[in-house]
Each structure stands twice: as structure tokens, then as C-alpha cells.
């Protein structure tokens, strides 16, 4: 009897804020006739990413209790095994890792775990790169380099934020780390999805050349200096205080703030306000109306170095509407 075909798995990686969720949303919104099961892993105890993913028919599984590359032997394997019991309800799996994840242990899962290997196969590692910040990141983050080294497909994204010279420098740097991956230069991750999904691009031999211990090594190191701070407020947040506070923080501490995200309830405002930041760059917009049953809780996550939870908490609380 012929072996059953395995389910293709795409691993989406890339440093904090590069554009992974932007790409995932495109995958989930486009009319491609395929059904994807999505696994999202996020750094930080309050899951905000799930709030930023478009409402889609696809089921989204969150893994928020740690970094995916450290928990693969547990959670990821369990989720994939659970999914396999419901075969036929989806055609492929997409995994969005945290920006801090080393992709090697995630990829390794598809080779070293026998049950997983029998049913799922790693299709490609797709790495989204932030053209504006990557050169700086490669100075201080081993993970950022690993993400590029392991990629089968690279989206060099946010090209609108750099000039031609800078873009050429980034291109050369990426090529020095990984000369083989297919490279697409994008804004908002706009790329034909067939360039990204179900490409059959993962090449174990190439990975073994980069990392001879790929199939046996299972320890890796993280930058312990990076922490996350989660904030929450049941009282509505006053935009006239909140916006200047956030601008002040990113101006003074932008070097250390690798990523920030928030979903905010403003007084007398029917819409949720979503704010996002990468270093000094801030982006904010109304997202959708609060649902009637949804508690209007404002939540923020900061990820970075030298973050002081108490100061951030005080600053955030000072923006809240005080009880009369
Ligand atoms: N200017 C510009 N902004 C972009 C582009 N692509 C994405 N963004 C913005 O960059 C921010 C981060 O994008 P996300 O897709 O959330 O990044 P991510 O990699 O999922 O972030 P994490 O999950 O926190 O690691 C958002 O505010 C996006 O709207 C781009 O090509 N140009």
C-alpha cells in the first residue's frame, strides 16, 4: 500500500515586527481554495497577535506559554498530533513563530519526531526581513541571523522605508548569509502566494551543511536580556494622554523597544484602536467595533531590553480615565 501523502507545513519566521502577521493575513484572506490550519506562537503572556489576525474560517491555535523553539517537543507536537486526528478538514499547516525564535528546533521537529514525520513534512521556511532594521538587528541578534540562514524563501519587506543604497546594502548582507533562498522584495508582504506556500523547497542537505548537528542537537541559547511587559486596564484609555506618552517612550527608549502592540478602548469610541511599534516607528488605526459581549479591556505588550515593568505600568495607568 502506498504511504499516505503528508501534510505540507510552512514555517513563517522573521524578527520582531518584520511583517509575519501581515503575510499570514494575506494567506488567510486570499481566495486560493486551500484550507490552512494556523499555529501562532507569541512572546509575552497576553496574546495580542490573535487579535491582529483577520477573522477567517481557518482555525488558529495559539501557543503563548513560551517560545516555540523551546517548547517544540511538547506543545507543537501535541497540537500537530491533535490536528492530524481531524485530517480532511485542512490541506496544509502554517506556523507563525515568535520573532525571537530560532527556526532550527522548529524545523527539527519535522525530522526527529517519528509520528510527526509520518504525517507532516516541512515544505519551506519563509523568513520575513524588515529592510529598515535588519542591519542593526544582525549586530545584536543571533536569532535574526539564523532566521535568514535557514530560509528557503525570503521576503525582504518594508522596502518603502529604505532608499536604494540602503536596500542594496541589505541585499548584499542577506546574500552573504544565505545565497540560495529565493528572495522577493516586498511592501506589506505583497507577493504571489504560490511563491511562498507549498513550494516543496525545504532542503535538508543544505541545512546539514549550515548546521551539521541539526538532527541531534537540541539545545540553543536565547538572549535573556530581552523581556516582555504586559499591561492591562479595565478603565478606558484617554487618547490625548496615551498618544503623547507612547511618543515620549519611543523617542526616549526606542532603541530598547524592539516591539510594542496594543488593543485600546478609548472613551465613547465604538471601535477598538490598535497600536503597533518597532523601535521608534509607530503605527495606529481603528480596527473594528467592540463586540457587545466583549469586555472593553485595553491591553499592551512591550518586548525589548531594559524594560521597567513598574514605570510602564504607572505610565499606562496615568492615561486611564479615573473613576469619579
Ligand atoms: N512601512 C511598512 N510597514 C509595514 C510593512 N509590512 C508590515 N508593516 C507594518 O509593520 C508592523 C509589524 O507588522 P507585523 O506583520 O505585525 O509584524 P510581525 O512580524 O508579525 O510582528 P511580531 O509578531 O510582533 O514579531 C505593522 O504595523 C505593519 O502594518 C511594509 O512593507 N512597510
Largest sheet: 7 strands, parallel
Tell me which CATH architecture of the largest domain applies here.
3-Layer(aba) Sandwich
The first-to-last residue Cα distance is 73 Å
Q: Strand-residue fraction?
A: 25-35%
Order of helices and strands: EHEHEHEHHEHHEHEHEHEEEEH
What is the CATH T-level topology of the largest domain? Answer: Rossmann fold
The Cα radius of gyration reads 20 Å
Mean pLDDT: 86
SS elements, strand count: 12
Total number of helices: 11
In this entry the ligands are: guanosine-5'-triphosphate
Helix content: 25-40%
Q: List the strand order in the largest sheet.
A: 3-2-4-1-5-6-7
The CATH homologous superfamily of the largest domain is termed P-loop containing nucleotide triphosphate hydrolases
- How many domain regions? 2
Unreliable segments of 5+ consecutive residues: none
Shape: globular
Amino acid at each position: 500500500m502506498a504511504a499516505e501523502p503528508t501534510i505540507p507545513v510552512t514555517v513563517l519566521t522573521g524578527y520582531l515586527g518584520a511583517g509575519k502577521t501581515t503575510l499570514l493575513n494575506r494567506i488567510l484572506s486570499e481566495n486560493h481554495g486551500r484550507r490552512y490550519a494556523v499555529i501562532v506562537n507569541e512572546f509575552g503572556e497576553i496574546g495580542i497577535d490573535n487579535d491582529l489576525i483577520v477573522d477567517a474560517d481557518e482555525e488558529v491555535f495559539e501557543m503563548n506559554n513560551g517560545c516555540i523553539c523551546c517548547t517544540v517537543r511538547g506543545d507543537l507536537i501535541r497540537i500537530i498530533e491533535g490536528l492530524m486526528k481531524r485530517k480532511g478538514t485542512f490541506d496544509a499547516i502554517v506556523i507563525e513563530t515568535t520573532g525571537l525564535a530560532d527556526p532550527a528546533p522548529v524545523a527539527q521537529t519535522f525530522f526527529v519526531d517519528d509520528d510527526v514525520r509520518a504525517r507532516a513534512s516541512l515544505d519551506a521556511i519563509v523568513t520575513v526581513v524588515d529592510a529598515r532594521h535588519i542591519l542593526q538587528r544582525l549586530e545584536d541578534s543571533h536569532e535574526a541571523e539564523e532566521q535568514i540562514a535557514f530560509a528557503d524563501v525570503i521576503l525582504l519587506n518594508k522596502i518603502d522605508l529604505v532608499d536604494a543604497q540602503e536596500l542594496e546594502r541589505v541585499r548584499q548582507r542577506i546574500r552573504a548569509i544565505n545565497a540560495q533562498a529565493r528572495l522577493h522584495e516586498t511592501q506589506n508582504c505583497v507577493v504571489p502566494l504560490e511563491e511562498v506556500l507549498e513550494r516543496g523547497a525545504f532542503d535538508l542537505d543544505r541545512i546539514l551543511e549550515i548546521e551539521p548537528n541539526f538532527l541531534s542537537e537540541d539545545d540553543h541559547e536565547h538572549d535573556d536580556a530581552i523581556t516582555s511587559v504586559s499591561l492591562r486596564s479595565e478603565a478606558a484609555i484617554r487618547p490625548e494622554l496615551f498618544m503623547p506618552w507612547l511618543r515620549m517612550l519611543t523617542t526616549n527608549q526606542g532603541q530598547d523597544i524592539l516591539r510594542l502592540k496594543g488593543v485600546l478602548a478609548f472613551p465613547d469610541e465604538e471601535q477598538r484602536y490598535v497600536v503597533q511599534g518597532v523601535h521608534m516607528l509607530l503605527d495606529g488605526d481603528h480596527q473594528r467595533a467592540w463586540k457587545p459581549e466583549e469586555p472593553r479591556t485595553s491591553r499592551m505588550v512591550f518586548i525589548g531590553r531594559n524594560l521597567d515593568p513598574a514605570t510602564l505600568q504607572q505610565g499606562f495607568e496615568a492615561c486611564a480615565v479615573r473613576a469619579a
